[in-house]
Description:
Blueprint: H1 11-19, E1 28-32, H2 37-53, E2 56-63, H3 70-84, E3 87-92, H4 103-116, E4 122-124, H5 129-141, E5 155-158, E6 161-165, H6 173-182, H7 199-214, H8 218-244, E7 248-249, E8 252-254, H9 255-260, H10 262-276, H11 284-296, E9 304-307, E10 310-315, E11 318-323, E12 332-334, E13 340-342, E14 349-356, E15 360-361, H12 362-365, E16 370-374, E17 380-381, E18 390-391, H13 392-398, H14 403-406, E19 410-414, E20 417-421, E21 425-426, E22 437-444
Parallel strand pairs: 1-2, 1-4, 2-3, 4-6
Antiparallel strand pairs: 5-6, 7-8, 8-11, 9-10, 10-11, 12-16, 13-14, 14-22, 15-22, 16-19, 17-18, 19-20, 20-21
Amino acid sequence: MASSRKSSFDLTEHVADALSPLLPADSSILLGLSGGVDSVVLLHLLQHLSLRCSWHLSALHVHHGINSKADVWAVFCADLCALYGVSLQVEHVNIAPLRSLGIEAAARKLRHAALAQQQVDFVALAHHLDDQAETLLLQLLRGAGVRGVSAMPAIKHRANAPTLLRPLLNVSRSILLKYAQQHNLQWVEDESNADDTYPRNFLRHRILPLLEQRFPAYRKTLLRSAQHFAEATELLDELAQQDADGAISDNCLNIKKLRMLGIVRGKNLLRYFLTAQGAAIPDSTRLQEMLRQLCNARQDAQVCIDWQGWQMRRYRDHAYTMPALPPPVEFTVMWHGEAEILLPPPHGVLYFRNTIGQGISVAKLQLGIVKIRSRRGGETIRVDAARPQRDLKNLLQKHEMLPWQRDLLPLLFCDTDLVCVPGIGIANTYQAQSNEAGVVAIWRADLNTA
C-alpha cells in the first residue's frame, strides 16, 4: 500500500507554522492592507488563523492619494474587512514633502511610519519571495553596500514599535495568485504596476522572465545570497559595536576615536551610528565625504552635512545627527503668566513652573512688560552680582551649548532688561529671594533638535 503523503503545498499551514511559535493567544496583530492580491491573501489567511489561535486581528490601509483610484481602493479595503469582521483604520498621508526621495521610496517611508505608530503587538506585511529577489537586484543595481543587499527579515524587532512579521517571505507570487483564485478572492489592480518606467516594474516584466528561462530557481538562490549578506552585516555590526565602545555616548560620536579607525572601519562605525539614531544611510560616496569632512575639518569649523532630510553636524570633537533643522525665525511673544508658551517652529516650547525662593522674582516681573523673543545678537546679562556683565555669546560658549541650539534659544525680557536665559542663568537683580514667590523657565527645544 502506498504511503500517504502531502502532495501539495498548504499555504495556511505554512503561515500557521511561521506565526504560531511567535504569537501567544490574545496577541494583537495588524495587517498592512493595500488591497492588492498579496495583502488580500494574507488577510484571508490571518482571519482564518486568528479564529483558530485567538489572535486579535486588525488592518491598516495607508491612503497616499497618488492614484486617482485611491479612494476606491480605500472603500474596497473597508468593505472587505467588514465582510471578515476585521476592524480597519485608513491613514491618510501626504507624500508631497518627500517627493525628492522618489514616489516609491516616499510612499514606502510613509507606510512604515504609519505602521510603526500603531498600538499593537505585531504588524504583518505581505512581502513574498519575488519581492525579495526584486529588492536584492534593485539594491545591487543602485550600488548598495552589504546592509542594503541583505534580505528583508521575516521577523524584525523594533524599539518602541510593534514587531514586524513577513510570514510569506519564502512563498512565490505565483503560489499567492493560485491561492487567491482557488478561494475566489477579489482584489484591486494598480495599473501603475504595469508601467515599466518604474525600475521595479522593469525588472519584474522585462528582466526576470528572461532570467527565469535560464535560471528557474533564481528566486531561492538570490534569497540565499541575501541571507549571506545579512550574516555579513551582523558581523560588521559586531565590529562596529566594539569600535563604538568609548566612541559613541550621549547620542554623539567622538571624532578623535573615529579618526583612529581608518577609512573602512570609520565608515562602518559611521553607518552604525546613523542607524542607531534612526537616520537615513547615505550612499557610499556621500558617506565617505561625510567621513572626510568630520575627520579633516578644523576643530573650530561648524560642519553641517545635509542628506535625505537629515543633517550631520560637528561641534569641537563630536558629531551629532538629527532631522534637518529649519532655519530659526525672529519672533517676540508676550507672556501674561501662562504655564507654557508654544514658540514659532523650530524654537520649541517654554514652560513656567511656580516656586518659592528660587527662579525669577514674580514681584520684579510685575513691574514691567514681560516678553519672550529670539536672539538678535549683542545681548548681555549679569547673573552674579560679584562678576561683571557678560556677553551672552561668551556665556553660551562657556556652558558648551551646541551652536545650532543657541540659535533657537528663547530669551525672557522685562521691558528692555534681559532677565532670563533658560537653562543658563537669571539676571542677579531679578533672582527670587528666600521665601519670595518665583517662577522657573524651562525650555524644551523643538523635537528636531534632540
